[in-house]
Hints:
- By secondary structure, the chain is an all-alpha fold.
- The protein has one domain: CATH 1.20.58.110.
- Helix content is about 90%, strand content about 0%.
- Helix 1 packs antiparallel against helix 2 (about 45-65).
Amino acid sequence: MANIKSQIKRNRQNEKRQMRNRAARSEVNTRTRNAVAAAEGGDPEEIAEATRLAVKRIDKAASKGVLHPNNAARKKSRLMKRLARIQGE
């Protein structure tokens, strides 16, 4: 445990940020799973909505600094490729 006052505060800040970032990353993963599940279901409107929400969450995480912009672009690209492959089957 830190003895220095500024480091104690820094530790509190880091913990809050860590929890916020973990929640955002978890949300991205959940939305991505939902989009893939919708694609396997086959309803076009549901697929479009789930995909839109997944991309929105990825973009939001990137804009907040939770994800690196290249990481966000890669996630979106892989999601789109995966959805196209599922729908093509």
